[in-house]
Amino acid sequence: MSPSGERTAPRPWWPALLILAVVAAAAVVYYRAVWGDVATLVAALDHCKELYCDFTRQYYPTGRDVLTTGQPSNGYFYSSFFALLLVPFGRVELSTAVALWSLVQLVGIGLLLLPAIDFYRESPRAFALYVVLLAFSMPLLHNLKWGQVSTLVTGGAFATLFLYRRGRVTAAAVVLGLAVAVKYYVAVVAFAFLLRRDWRFLAVLAATVVLFWLVIPTAVLGPEGNWQFYVTVRERVAHAVTTWMPEDINAQYLPSVAGRWLGSAAGRGVWRWLGYGLFAANLLAVARLVVRRAPRAIEWAFALLFLGLPLAIETSWPHYFVYLPFAQTLVALETEFLLRNSVSTSSRLVVWVAATLLLVSIILASMPFFQLVGRWQDYSQYGVLFVANLSLLIAAHALTLRPAAQSGRPVSAAAPAGAVR
After folding, report:
1. Cα–Cα 20 to 30 A to 147, which of 134, 212, 316, 407?
2. What angle is formed at CA 21 by the lines to CA 323 and CA 42, rounded to 5 degrees?
3. Per the domain annotation, does 176 fall within a domain?
4. Rounded CA separation 7/166 (Å)
């Protein structure tokens, strides 16, 4: 549908597939030309020179032993439900499990590509931009290096958005519930549905989380076993938060980054409460968008809620930021429209500032900039991804605080396909 509300002929899909193939080929050529092989790239991205370190050292042992010991492996900070999902991987040789985990990583990338479908229907340029940003995303490569699940859970949130916009409310809630049962922080996007007062979605989501997070693990491990599993995880997380985690140079959490910038952790409490305050202000901005049913409201809500995470979540590792290409593409679409249609000088100034911040975010979060920095220690130490995230958060607010009538997409496109419930 065009911005005027008139129906347009559907775009052929072969150009999108061609763009996808060309970008994928260019990315492979780039990574091979710069780093030569997978082992060299893996070693350059972070400590631990082994591919899928988190999988081989935490996920695989947990899946192998959880049904006999009832306990997670050392360093495992996730749910008992996710531990049970890992059991089939623990039943095969490690080499086979690694190969199977590669398929899981491809599924995660596939889920991250779901927004590209809607971007293509709106603008082939937006589609191309999103695919390029994803292919050269440092957080995505960081996720692949560690064999992490940020692509899966963030992709699960994108799948929720994809299904919801098509009126598949129950399916959307179940998918989000699955993602939350693996990693809890993605539950933040449920705030958008609370604001919409979509009680059906929230009821299904709650039932799904209870089923996967509590009922199934309790049935398999037993009430005492499941309780002890979570006691162990809670104790390990508490120990990490009070010992090594705040000082880890990979942490892109506001107090951690501020402490490294200032060379002191003395004011960490102040930075923590400042982060909570900014996170709350971000929630209020999301509420304003959703309640006013602004164009692209549900998409902006997802983007802003993800962008607010480093203000409040201590485990903000680089791979968490796989949502950045989605938010960057949204900001790019809005700036393009406003630069074409905004007439006042003050409005144009705001949009140009937002465009500049967008460019900063794109550059900083990219693998070419990571290559330019040269050392992963420097890239993480100076909070490059935190700055990329913050720049984009400011740009997004600068654009979304404008009147809804000046957005490039009609209001109806931001809602689920109705309200087919």
Report:
1. 212
2. 55
3. no
4. 17
Rounded CA-CA distance 134/190 in Å is 24
pTM (whole model) above 0.70 = yes
Report the number of distinct structural domains present in the chain.
1
In this model, does residue 414 exceed pLDDT 50? no
* Alpha-carbon radius of gyration of the chain: 21
Query: Residues near 270 by Cβ (< 8 Å), separated by ≥ 6?
Result: none
- Does residue 260 lie within any of the structural domains? yes
CB 62 within 8 A of CB 86: yes
Domain that holds residue 255: 244-421
CA distance 379 to 397: 26
Residue 318 lies in a domain: yes
- The residue whose two tokens read 């549900």 is 298
pLDDT tens digits along 11-68: 888 889 999 999 999 999 999 999 999 999 999 999 999 999 999 999 999 999 999 9
**Under 8 Å between Cβ of 332 and 358:** yes
Flag whether 360 is in a domain: yes
